[in-house]
């Protein structure tokens, strides 16, 4: 699979001849939206790492400000500038060329950039839920690495995978684990909704509102993302294996089968209409 693609423009390649000083090339690079998009993801990645060791509330909030910043740039380009952009998570249901004429509720609820932006806004404004950072930090990890190897290092320093072993290793890592990352994201989003359900049962503040919002998000992702569908399939296979064990009481097996049947029925209802067949992101 290809990497998550949330870039704001075409990635640059290494230049044979670098013009100007390092400072001049860096300043020139920072003058476009793509660098601002990269900076947002860098903030998310850094704050997610710091939060892992500190559980600082301010760091958590800053991480989500970084998410809103980077995703907001993509949405701005899609719906205001009308630029073509690929999907964030690498499983684009379409490549957008949205202008005012294509701006509609249907386009919004089927646009994963919009969905992730709205979800991030919810996480920013509600009580802290640490697990929610996992999908965004995975996105940011690959976006940051790809920007470094394809744009920042070659354009500013003349370093690329052709002349540097470290960059070549990073390029190999992103190429190898890109698609696997998307399955990890889908799985983490299922785990998140399960944990939110348990929080709702314990009546955490705003827990039911958060749960319902996340369920709607996950339903739309299921409709538009092959990775989310694959994550659900893998979870079902694993749970089927566990529940089929002879030591599991018949009552639990019956409840599980009923719940599974209901979820399958719900999956047939479409919240959003997909206009184009799913295809790989560029």
Task: Give me some keywords for this one.
282 residues, mainly alpha, 0% strand, elongated, disordered C terminus, transmembrane helix, membrane
Describe the structure.
The chain is built from ten helices and no strands. It has 282 residues and is mainly α.
What is the fold's blueprint, element by element?
Layout: H1 22-29, H2 33-54, H3 57-81, H4 105-109, H5 112-125, H6 133-157, H7 165-201, H8 207-224, H9 226-243, H10 250-267
Helix pairs in contact: 1-6, 2-3, 2-6, 3-5, 5-8, 6-7, 7-8, 7-9, 8-9
- Note the main sheet: none
Q: SSE string, helix = H, strand = E?
A: HHHHHHHHHH
Counted beta strands: 0
> How much helicity do the residues have?
55-70%
Quick description:
With 282 residues, the chain is mainly alpha-helical. The protein has ten helices and no strands.
